[in-house]
Specification:
With 146 residues, the chain is mainly α. It has one domain (8-27, 61-145): Membrane associated eicosanoid/glutathione metabolism-like domain (Four Helix Bundle (Hemerythrin (Met), subunit A), Up-down Bundle), CATH 1.20.120.550. Helices cover 79% and strands 0% of the residues. The chain has five helices and no strands. 25% of the residues are buried.
Length: 146
């Protein structure tokens, strides 16, 4: 039985999905570093572990921005995993699959950079592009499997 990764569309999907996972891991580290720099932690035991006596009562804006960027990734990249994989398994046009996968990934990367830097309308445009590409994949995949 041939490997799924031998299929060009599946291989392209896997590449771009792994890029997005790496991007998310970078945001996780950025969130942790923002917490350490600001002394704003998530739980009382984190404060104790860091040797901080006073628990912050107000959220830190940098920590919250990084945390919200990561939450947005979870809400958007997780659906891409399922939809993109199903789409790739429908033997789509390789060119179109590459456009969808790369376009979605690049849009999500731009979205994160814009989110972390507070850049509008760049963030909204990047979000919209990623959503349009995801909807196109959903519709195409649904059409082919229905």
């Amino acid at each position: 039985m041939p490997s799924l990764l031998a299929q060009p569309a599946v291989r392209s999907f896997a590449f771009w999905y792994l890029i997005l996972v790496i991007k998310m891991l970078v945001v996780v580290v950025m969130t942790s570093l923002a917490r350490i720099r600001s002394g704003t932690f998530a739980t009382p035991e984190d404060y104790r572990f860091q040797g901080v006596e006073k628990i912050a009562t107000e959220p830190n804006p940098d920590v919250e921005r990084a945390r919200r960027a990561l939450q947005n990734d979870l809400e958007n990249i997780l659906p891409f995993f399922g939809v993109g994989l199903i789409y790739a398994l429908t033997a789509p046009s390789l060119l179109l699959a590459r456009i969808y996968f790369a376009g979605f990934a690049v849009a999500r990367i731009v979205h994160t950079v814009a989110y972390l830097r507070g850049m509008q309308p760049h963030r909204t445009i990047a979000f919209g592009v990623a959503q349009v590409l995801l909807v196109l994949m959903v519709l195409t995949a649904f059409w082919r499997v229905a």
